[in-house]
């Protein structure tokens, strides 16, 4: 069974493909259809993440297919400087330092700085779902994908009126780079990506020409820059905003969706979450291991590398198959069993490893913990539509649900919340 992210089994049961890859005698192999080397074992994926001298990032954000000339002409107009995800040292070292100084990335800092934003947005969305009692709702666009986007636009100081545009641009970037759209769609998505970049440039320009005393990320980054291009350029600040508006919500949306699917597919799990909110963090770590939001990430070899007894030549694109690594039986006992009480769940690689470890990991964990605990407390009878089977969007990197339909059970909305009118719930959130 080949790893084909754009059709077939991988769109309905990626774990079956991961199992097949892990049980092959060769530990690393070349995928002709993708034109990439697949690295699947936990120890090897961890090794690649932790060795930036051998595995570079220059092609991480380059399309995984040959783009049509018309779309390529549009993309060539993008003058986005590499900062963090697509940068190597020394640029990565400098920009990562700037990001660490301006974007809260430890659990205490994240809780103090972003916790109020997360709680307010969670309560708004939960109140909206309570308003839909008795209805079938798609939890992806109405909760899992929307919450992280609302949080990140608050952090960056972006107005709510731009949320729909940003969501379309971000989804388009993921489809354009890691999907395989038809030529006409490539052109449309490329034009959207260019508009998105100009939007981020304008956002930075408005801050530079106005008041920089705000607490939003762009103002913080510009104060950190202090007019010194050797610290950060204005274009690099715009590039950081550009990346955060995608990575800052798409990955957390995936975590929430996978977590909701696992919790709601077994009624006892959802009940436990409602009754024991302290169980949510461990549940989320297992959700991260079992179904990562990013199940494959790209690197390019900077020199010949021998890994798993196979020598990969210099200049080769490699796909680090995180989903397979997280199910590696050499690392995890009974890897295909979802076990919220698993002691070693945190050994997953869903946030990467090494110098490029996801800087938003603490924020993603905080958002998912608050969101799931609050939703389970308020709507303990929430349940998936009977017979629902997950289908994922065709993509090399992002494992995103097409839909997650659920019934908001009117009889099992928590009494304190059921008796309160929606405006009271919203007032409490404020």
Automatic annotation (TrEMBL):
<dbReference type="InterPro" id="IPR036396">
    <property type="entry name" value="Cyt_P450_sf"/>
</dbReference>
<comment type="similarity">
    <text>Belongs to the cytochrome P450 family.</text>
</comment>
<keyword id="KW-0349">Heme</keyword>
<keyword id="KW-0560">Oxidoreductase</keyword>
<keyword id="KW-0479">Metal-binding</keyword>
<dbReference type="InterPro" id="IPR001128">
    <property type="entry name" value="Cyt_P450"/>
</dbReference>
<keyword id="KW-0408">Iron</keyword>
<keyword id="KW-0503">Monooxygenase</keyword>
<dbReference type="InterPro" id="IPR017972">
    <property type="entry name" value="Cyt_P450_CS"/>
</dbReference>
<protein>
    <submittedName>
        <fullName>Cytochrome P450</fullName>
    </submittedName>
</protein>
<dbReference type="Pfam" id="PF00067">
    <property type="entry name" value="p450"/>
</dbReference>
<dbReference type="InterPro" id="IPR002397">
    <property type="entry name" value="Cyt_P450_B"/>
</dbReference>
